[in-house]
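note to self: dont lose this again. the chain is below, predicted strucutre after it. 223 aa total, dont forget to put it in the shared folder this time
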Amino acid sequence: MDIMLVVIAALQAYVLGSINFAVIFTNLFTKKDVRDFGSGNAGMTNVLRVAGPLPGILTFLCDAAKGAVACFIGRYVIFDYLVKNYPDRADFYLPIYGALFCGVFCMLGHVFPAFFQLKGGKAVAVSVGIFAIVDWRCISVALGIFVIVLLISRIISISSLIATASMPVCIALFQRNTGEKVWVSVLLTLVMALIIYLKHIENIKRLLKGEEKPIFGKNKKEK
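---
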């Protein structure tokens, strides 16, 4: 029964992640498929370029919301229930593990959406919603880093990557005294970071070549 609940939670998180708001809002506002334009990525940054600020903002908010809902399911519904009903396994079924576990599957659904030919986004906005539920201190630090790097570089991808890299460190620091096996949370956070980095491989290549486009202005090679 407990394993079935975990499987159901994972499936729910994946299905929720598969609702791709970048595709939905771009089509709603422009009748276009965002994946056919710009970088081809079904995420907020490409929506901003293809459809404009309002669809981009809506995409970010809804992607973050689905990450938060997935974590809420994992933390406060499934794993909370398991801890109460299997107290002898409480160390294994800690609610934070449920939040991060469902967060991983929500990100996988976002990256490989079942409803959109497995062509999704890069899951950065989804991770914001996930860590808003997991630990508000972690997401506060990451968002602060993101804003600072963005103001300096004007490039969303490098800002996202550096902020993402801070998350496992933040989890290790902020969760170290909670009585849990913090390495489990760090490991799940590293999996999330790996998903984001793998989806940014092309961005990383362009960054190394100095060809990545800033969100405003021009890059060095275009000047």
